Amino acid sequence: MDVADHLYRESYRESYNYTQAAVSIDYFTDAATLHGTLTATDLKPNFAYQLKLIGSSIDPDGKEQIGLTGRWWQTEWVDGTGWTNGQNLNNKGDGSSPNPNDLVYFQRRDITDPTSPTGKKYSYAAYRVLDYFVTDENGNAVFGFEADDSYHVLWKTSQRTPVAGDGPTINKTFAVTLPDPVGAYDTPYSETTVGVYGEWERLPPGEILLPLGDYTAYFNLTEESFHGSGYAGSWASAMSAMVTFTIVPEPASSALLVSGAFLILVYTVFGRKRKRKGGQARLLAGESDPRR
Fold first, then answer.
1. Into how many domains does the chain fold?
2. Which residue among 8, 51, 93, 223 is least packed, with the fewest CB closer than 10 Å?
3. Is 121 contained in some domain?
4. 285 contacts 264 by C-beta, under 8 angstroms
5. 192 in a domain, yes or no?
6. Which pTM was predicted?
7. What is the Cα–Cα distance from 152 to 166, expressed in whole angstroms?
């Protein structure tokens, strides 16, 4: 379903996949904040997406910093069952750090279990919702982002009233006439306006910055489900790409814009760190997203 809960036509639901989309992220590899521009074509029309940063196991320090400025996904090792009981740590407290989720993470991260493949009782994924957007009737979008806010999840204003600290509301006004531009609908819908915003995870707004250092992580697009069920989805991972960047003191001596972290189902990522040539990687979409 789209952001207004309009059901897509059956043939579109059955045939669409993210190999049909092209998403590029131009981002600065050396700056005081991670920021850039996302350009997307052929995503789902009139649809809300989260832009996430997800920690990588090959960069444990960076992963922890992403979690400490974002969210934790916890799984538990149960001998004979495996990694199970996956859940978000959801007690964000008053927004200050360390919040109750961080305290749980610190208390449990080093608990041992000799039957576990890692030797630990708990495993943690770290992720941070950086921003969000709603596509147009063609499934396209262009927007700038900056990693200075940290969001919990997205809501529609019809579900929950925004409070102080929440992100800006995106008001999407649209109607569906047939035939629509991408053949996604088989029913016309009258004009409606839907407001979408991000619930805060860390406070204060505009001041949740990644600490200085080098990072290897993933950019990830996640479908927003608005806590719905069935055709509303379940926060499915859409597309992802591994990237590297460095957070430097303000003002940065030089900010190098990298063009082309191309996110398609199978895609190529181009990125550079300071004093290094551009690298290349090919990844599968949907990897590394801890949300279900």
1. 1
2. 93
3. no
4. yes
5. yes
6. 0.89
7. 9
